[in-house]
Design goal:
By secondary structure, this protein is α/β, with parallel strands linked by helices. It contains 21 helices and 25 strands.
């Protein structure tokens, strides 16, 4: 069904409703209107990395992990699998009359906020710190969720609009102050690109932007989204955000005024209950029936596009056997394998011989953790393979011991409940081992969404430090004192520094993120060399003592690889392989109109097959505007056998190499433009870590 047909049908249906009936449909838990044949519908569902909150589902690697694949095609296939499982569940939910929360096919994902600050607890839900990478992966994700059929397979929703990335503790009353340069260069591009790619929904953010609540923001929603970008989908508030307008932001005096502000700004749907007050707002003439009708028409257009009112609903042939099925588990494992970033590998310590009979100790709070596989916004898989489980499965001849060693953050001596001081046990296992795998990091209890829990390390889900928690550093340093061969594996959703002593002692360091239900097996396949690592960092990993700007400062100066001051510990775009690649003959193929095409030859100069992520960065200057050090503007994956060389052609959209002026306008740079092609960004830290510099092309 075309958008136009769906819109016409929605207009005809809404025209038959009373004002009260139309108002009832603007809440996320919309009731049935039996006289019109409209069933109850709950709009709230989540699909960040699998169907959330409704029984068994494939738990794929979290969004930040998928971002490290730098592979839009793979992300799109994951999203397609997620929407297949969503339809399979929906078909049965409808059959059995279940219209509860998390049972619909309107998914409030992807989270495309820029991970501007490594302390933000929800950064794990995003595609990282770069506008181009975020936009590219988000568009593929949305296309995978929504499909390309006559009807939407499911409806995706870009969130949180806009400039939303902490702090969690004060998000309900916080105002992000952002100038137009940073707004249009960093915070808006992913929203613009996903809107123009056809995303069905956009969710507003909790915070204010420059003093005005995002969910009722006249400039953000009414002007930029609706008029400048011609968005004709639905806008939904974040959950409870409309209450914030009057309770915490103090931007309205009453619930009715807050509801009216949001509706007048074309926020169509309320996740929460503030739109109950639209009845009062209507009676007080704060809103018109035309405002109500327009919102209802936007919502029912989506429901028609999903095929809800068809005699035979589309995709009804998708059976429940697709839930966490073999095909999806295979895709899950492959994705997890391609998410894992190798950060250090001294003297080619890895891979380990899978037939080794050595003693391997797996030590750390994430050795047996399931929550560290899941991240947040997760479903529940039918099978989990933890780090220790995966190592047991792959290294079948090794003697394997496992100790937790410590908790994530808390350590208490003489604690009557026990399990508060386990460090000596972890040291004991490592001291007896030939190799120790230190499974460190965090989980959603430490970094996450508005946890409401504060301690020395976390503030409502945001980290207070860029270091690993002190208890884990104490364990890791003690293990390094007793075991020569240490491999550090970090499972977390953000930038973490294990500290200089552990970094220097470890033979290898791996960032495994929150790798999904089969993450432990994926990791073991990397450790054994069955899989050659190919992932790249979608964010900057900073030294623990890096001088970060104030967390509440939303200016981009000093943030991310594009504006960092000083060197990164491990830079954005960096990741090692068990082979090595060489680049030759970078060429400008064409530079016509809004598209630039370049090419380069890439050779696998090592001894095993591998997958290389070719990255193109643009450095440009402009006398009218601040510009980044450089900006990622194109990428492509290539699989190469040992010794194989291929020419790779990459296209660049000029959008990504335009300067952004102080008033937010994108303009052709009036200075020099240089393109850099390689397997990393063109910074000195990456050059040193990988041993080569990118090739250059001057436009």
């Amino acid at each position: 069904m075309t958008k136009e047909t769906a819109r016409k049908k929605a207009e005809e249906l809404v025209a038959k409703m009373t004002v009260e009936e139309k108002l009832s449909q603007l809440l996320y838990n919309a009731p049935a209107i039996e006289r019109l044949g409209i069933e109850e519908y709950n709009w709230w569902n989540e699909s960040s990395h699998g169907i959330h909150g409704a029984g068994t589902a494939t738990v794929f690697p979290h969004a930040i992990a998928m971002a490290s694949t730098f592979d839009p095609g793979l992300v799109g296939r994951v999203a397609d699998a997620i929407s297949t499982e969503g339809r399979a569940k929906y078909n049965k939910h409808i059959k059995f009359g279940d219209h509860d929360i998390f049972k619909g096919i309107t998914f409030w994902a992807p989270n495309i906020n820029i991970f501007r600050d490594p302390r933000w607890g929800r950064g794990q839900e995003t595609f990282g710190e770069d506008p181009f990478l975020t936009s590219t992966l988000a568009v593929s994700y949305i296309n995978g969720i929504q499909g390309n059929g006559e009807f939407l397979k499911a409806a995706a929703c870009s969130k949180h609009f806009a400039a939303h990335s902490g702090p969690e503790k004060t998000r309900h009353g916080f105002s992000a102050v952002v100038d137009k340069h940073d707004l249009y260069e960093t915070y808006l591009p992913a929203f613009e690109k996903t809107v123009k790619a056809g995303v069905s929904g956009v969710m507003g953010a909790y915070n204010c932007l420059n003093g005005e609540p995002c969910c009722s923001h006249s400039y953000l929603i009414s002007q930029i989204l609706r008029k400048d970008w011609n968005f004709d989908g639905y806008v939904v508030s974040d959950c409870g955000a409309l209450k914030d307008i009057y309770k915490f932001h103090k931007f309205a005096g009453t619930r009715a005024e807050a509801a009216a502000l949001a509706l007048k700004s074309t926020c169509d749907l309320n996740c929460g209950d503030t739109y109950d007050a639209l009845v009062d707002a209507y009676e007080q003439d704060l809103i018109s029936e035309e405002d109500i009708t327009a919102a209802a028409e936007n919502l029912f257009t989506i429901r028609y596009r999903l095929g809800e009112f068809e005699e035979t609903r589309p995709y009804s042939d998708i059976g429940y056997d697709k839930i966490d099925c073999r095909e999806h588990r295979e895709l899950n494992l492959k994705t997890a394998e391609q998410c894992i970033v190798l950060l250090k590998n001294d003297e080619k310590f890895l891979p380990l011989d899978k037939n080794t009979n050595k003693r391997i100790a797996v030590v750390g709070p994430n050795a047996l953790s399931v929550t560290a596989l899941e991240g947040n916004y997760n479903g529940y898989a039918s099978e989990y393979v933890t780090v220790a489980d995966g190592i047991r499965r792959v290294f079948v001849n090794a003697e394997i011991s496992v100790e937790k060693g410590c908790n994530y953050c808390d350590e208490h001596l003489n604690h009557w409940s026990g399990f508060q001081n386990m460090i000596s046990d972890g040291i004991a296992a490592a001291a007896e081992a030939d190799i120790t795998i230190l499974a460190l990091g965090l989980d959603r209890s430490v970094e996450g969404e508005d946890t409401g829990f504060d301690d020395d390390y976390t503030a409502s889900g945001d980290k207070r430090s860029l270091y690993l928690p002190a208890t884990q550093r104490k364990l890791a340093e003690a293990v390094c004192d007793v075991c020569d061969n240490v491999v550090v594996v970090l499972l977390c959703g953000s930038s973490i520094d294990v500290g200089e002593k552990v970094r220097n002692h470890a033979k290898a360091v791996i960032h495994a993120w929150y790798p999904g239900s089969l993450g432990g097996l994926a990791l073991a396949n990397i450790l054994s060399g069955k899989v050659n690592p190919s992932a790249k960092l979608p964010l900057t990993i900073y030294k623990g003592d890096h001088d970060m700007p104030d967390f509440e400062n939303y200016g981009m100066k000093g943030r991310t690889y594009r504006y960092i001051e000083g060197d990164a510990l491990y830079p954005f775009g960096f990741g090692l392989s068990y082979t090595n690649y060489k680049y030759y003959n970078a060429k400008l193929v064409s530079a016509d109109g809004e598209k630039i095409t370049v090419s380069a030859e890439v050779e696998n100069a090592g001894g095993i097959a591998g997958k290389e992520i070719i990255q193109v960065y643009a450095a440009y200057t402009d006398s009218r505007a601040a510009t980044p050090h450089w900006q990622l503007c194109s990428l492509k994956s290539v699989n190469l056998e040992a010794g194989e060389k291929k020419e790779v052609v990459l296209d660049i959209d000029r959008y990504w190499i335009k300067a952004v002026t102080a008033d937010g306008e994108r303009v052709e740079p009036d200075g020099k433009i240089i393109l850099f092609i390689g397997g990393h960004q063109p910074d000195s830290a990456s050059d040193k870590l990988l041993g080569y510099s990118c090739l250059e092309i001057e436009l």
